[in-house]
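re: ur question from yesterday

yeah so i grabbed the chain u mentioned. its 64 aa long if i counted rite. heres the sequnce exactly as i have it in my notes:
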Amino acid sequence: MDSMLDIYNLLKQYGTYIYTTDRLGDLQLMEDEIKELYKANVLDIKDYQMAMLLLRQEATRLNG
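ran it thru and got these structure tokens back, copy pasting raw so excuse formatting
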């Protein structure tokens, strides 16, 4: 997992589409979905950690 597009595609694989007008809100919803996939043992630790890192970097970029 190298980019936000990879996260969008991962979520799409599981039927999750997140597109609202609030970009930061979208990132929070994606983070919640990634956490749920990890808790359900769908994602391994490496993919979970990389997805969370990318989401938080994107949130920081938008806030900064």
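noticed a couple things. The radius of gyration is 11 Å. also The domain at 4-63 is CATH 1.10.287.760 (Helix Hairpins).
anyway ttyl
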